[in-house]
Design goal:
The chain is of the alpha/beta class. About 30% of the residues lie in helices and about 25% in strands. The chain has helices at about 50-65, 85-100, 110-120, 160-170, 195-205, and strands spanning about 1-5, 10, 20-25, 30-35, 40-45, 75-80, 105-110, 130-135, 140-145, 155-160, 170-175, 190. α1 crosses α2.
Amino acid sequence: MIFYLQGHEILSLPAMSYLLYLDTTAKHSTILLLNDFGVISERISEHQSNHSQVINHLVEEVLAEAKISLNDIQAICVLNGPGSYTGLRISLSTAKGICYAKDLPLILLNKLDLLQWAAAKEFPGQSFCTIIQARENEYFAAFYNSEGMRLAEPSVLSSESLQTEMGANGSILCFEDPTYGNQFEYFKLVSIKRADILTICRNYFLARKYADLLSSEPFYHKNVFINKINKL
């Protein structure tokens, strides 16, 4: 099996390797167990905003279904944002606990990069801007050249600033949520598939693109809103 990372060919390792993927960036927790051949087990919670109560149970279920244990896992992969403060904290803290306990490497993924990967498969040779809504009229955004290289660190832009930036560099605007469509004139809807997640996770693993366990933090990219309580 052959995988690619930023245009460079990387050959798959001959021995079977298992990767555990955790995603609590959205309303539902998603746990995937990956190997060289694809997604061999997965669980998606049906309870919104209930990540802390279900994530460990879901991990146990995917391992049991595949008849393996954490001792068989080679790395933990986490979709590390952008997203909500609480959701990102839960998946990363869970992953760190497993990595410390089992001496495993940690792989951190950015959803904006996953969107770019999915978009590049549909529209090869193009430059892209991928976005995820942060708050009302604000978006996490990242720009990529035609070779898939990120041009700068992701930023938070208003819809007006985003349109200005788009006009300046001519990138294709890509996002996954169709509800954004009424705010932008030119855009492409893209869908992150299981195969995209598998490929990116495997590429990072084979390239040993590991995160530092001690210093890794969730990619919030925005200050956290804290509601102050007025004391009488």
